[in-house]
């Protein structure tokens, strides 16, 4: 006799009365079309084509008579993933601006369950903020789409991006992702919630990035100390109100004068430190 699930945490807008399948993730349940899932995903197609070993049709767990498929993924990721499949307006291609959390969820699960059109769309959204073109990246270093604005103040989000890019093997986006993460202060980045669970590979590369930055900052500070009087803009730094602007101007001028300070040190010229070890 088929068992009936006691869990009834239905997710609004993803509970269709004519759905032929209930997808369960943790305590959340989604009633959707199994045929549509199978058409979008080769993994779901295989999953729904063959019964689970040892279970007959009468043994499959059901809810209100509808068979249940259990996903071992977090509900907060499964929900945007299913919304992207069943709501055509939810996860539009660029220039739409979905939330970073939704992009990461869709990227991870569309890669896992082989929904190729959504995977490509998620990577398109990530490419807008993590450009593979150096000039574009440098021009937009401090700019983020509205959905990605949390990257400005939340080091944890950078760690989530790096983990995801490694997981889905999007290696071409790693240089700019590491470069952006390196803008976070080490004392904040290295105590972010997921730091302790990061793979050692990512931790090591982030330490290397910050070591590169430290080396170049030392060179820049040394240049400021020895070359300050030679920079015309420095003469205008007479009050605290004018100094902040003039210091930026001085540093810009120094970057043009000091040959051993490479402003692009942590991007393509050292991209070998960003890709996984073979």
UniProtKB/TrEMBL annotation:
This is BTB domain-containing protein. PROSITE patterns: BTB. It comes from the Eukaryota. InterPro entries: BTB/POZ_dom, SKP1/BTB/POZ_sf. SUPFAM superfamilies: POZ domain. It comes from Favolaschia claudopus. Residues 17-94 form the BTB domain.
